[in-house]
Amino acid sequence: MQLLSTDQLRILDAISQGTVILKDGIIRHANACFAAFSKTGQAGLPGHPFFDFVIPKHHRRVGRYLESIPVDNSVCAAGKLEFTLRDIDGAESFMIMQAQAVTHDGAPSLLCSLTDITQRTKAERKLKRILDSIPEVIIAFDREHSRIESANHATEGLYGLPAEQFVQNIFHPIDLVFPEDSDKVHAFYAGLVDREFDRIEYRIVHANGDIRWVRDEGEVVYKEQGLGRVQQVYHFIKDITDRKNDEERLRVNEQKYRRIFENSTDPIFVASADGTFTDINLAAVNLFGFASREEALAANVGELFPNPGKRDAFMALIDEAGGVTGQPFRLQTRSGEMVDVAVTAGCRRNRNTGRPESYQVILHDMRALIAQTELETYRRTMGGLSDRLNNIAQVQLMELGLMLDYIDALKAARDPERSDQLLARILEQAREVERSLQELRHLGEKIRRIYHAPEPPVPVPDGTGGILFDLK
Q1: What's 266-365's CATH class?
Q2: Alpha-carbon gap, residue 458 to 472, rounded angstroms
Q3: Homologous superfamily, domain 122-244
Q4: pLDDT tens per residue across span 154-199
């Protein structure tokens, strides 16, 4: 126990901290600073109960603290106490107090040192309100990175546990890590102080059993002018479950796209804004006549447009509309063959500049369709021609039959007038046959034009005295 001299009391009066000497809860001496805290004249404080300046809510707390000070110990109490002081006007301020046993006027007493932490406490509370409004979990550890000193209310949303259970060190973030990620998270926490800053993504188990993904960023905070001494270690933990789910869906979609891309019978390719191939499937490699995919990726799509003017106009159409669907176009393969295709293309733009970054193109080779269409056209045309030929042949057979009947009648006729009539009819039928043959000739010319024959049809005997046209 320390004996206070008169000089030491004068020193207490000079210091900027509030000091009081208590005996059985009664103020025996108070310095000017404490008088200012309590808004009471310094001369009137001795004999005044100290608890008159403590709010009732904190009476028991302060009493227990003062009773815990050993009377035979001259060393300050290891612990400090925070309480609320109320001055004679009823205004409250936050104090932090530390006490030690002393001897004053020959009697055991307590020397209490008080520091006004009102501004700091208000700032801390304001900061806590701000931190509690942040959706990310913020946890502050001690300098040893072992005990949790504070945590915001976001812990309840992320972990399903109130912040108090973390501050009381009932739970530690590592306790809630998904078992398969436990080893790497332990290593992350163990080495953070040495690394000073680091981040990790891992899974946690929510109180309701849900599995969630989090990103944990740890940072070491050093004391100001503390010569490298650690003050606290902070962890900023954010729920990234939605992002991870989106990434997984994107990965699955990319796999599906890759399978479709690689196995599609339609040529598909992606080109950069300058026309360089950045991706191309096997169907496109074969269509354009490249020896390999590697050769194609070293080429430029501009080489496949035989007409630069049409190419620029086509690209301008895609840029303006954002894409085209089923647009007919003619491309040139590496061998020089012209290929008719239907183009479906889209343009991806830079989100900042709005300029085209790449083009995704799907081609549909129209050669088989065109060949099929031409074949169907030939079939319909030849069907119509065969009907015309059949009709002409039927007419010719009918006219030939009439001519033969007239000739037989002419042979049997004895009357000159009757003979003249039959001869006139025979001549008339001959002219009809001539007209049919003219129609047949015109039809042959049409057939020749259809097949682009370089020579006109060749007349051949039909075996009945007439002619047909050889279409070969």
Answers
A1: alpha beta
A2: 9
A3: PAS domain (3.30.450.20)
A4: 999 999 999 999 999 999 999 999 999 999 999 999 999 999 999 9
396-415 mean pLDDT:
71
The neighbour count for residue 469, using CB atoms within 10 Å, is: 19
Cβ count within 10 A of residue 202:
19
The neighbouring-strand residues paired with 82 are: 96
Rounded distance between C-alpha atoms, residue 276 and residue 357, angstroms: 11
Nearest one of 37, 80, 43 to 62, comparing CA atoms: 80
* Cβ atoms of residues 27 and 44 within 8 Å: no
- According to DSSP, the residues that pair with 214 across neighbouring strands are 202, 239
3-state secondary structure of 182: helix
In terms of phi and psi (left: phi > 0; alpha: psi -120 to 50; beta: otherwise), the region of 354 is left
Q: Compute φ and ψ for 373, nearest 5 degrees.
A: -65, -45
Same fold, 2-116 and 266-365: yes
Cα distances (Å, whole numbers) of residue 339 to 4, 126, 373? 108, 72, 16
Question: Tell me, what amino acid is at 64?
Answer: R
Cβ atoms of 305 and 318 within 8 Å: the answer is no
Q: Give residues with Cβ within 8 angstroms of 431, minimum separation 6.
A: none
CATH H-level, domain 2-116: superfamily: PAS domain (3.30.450.20)
- Return the ∠ at Cα 414 (arms to 411 and 419), rounded to 5°: 65
**Whole-structure pTM value:** 0.51
In angstroms, rounded to a whole number, what is the distance separating the alpha carbons of residues 365 and 286? Answer: 11
Q: Which residue type is seen at 388?
A: R
User: If you compute the radius of gyration of the chain from its CA atoms, what whole number of angstroms results?
Assistant: 52
> Residues 1-34: pLDDT tens digits?
455 556 566 667 667 789 999 999 999 999 999 9
Q: Residue ranges of the domains in the chain? A: 2-116, 122-244, 266-365, 380-470
Give the span between the Cα atoms of 253 and 259, in whole angstroms: 10
Beta bridge partners of 346: 323, 360
How would you classify residue 24: left for phi > 0, otherwise alpha for psi between -120 and 50, otherwise beta?
left
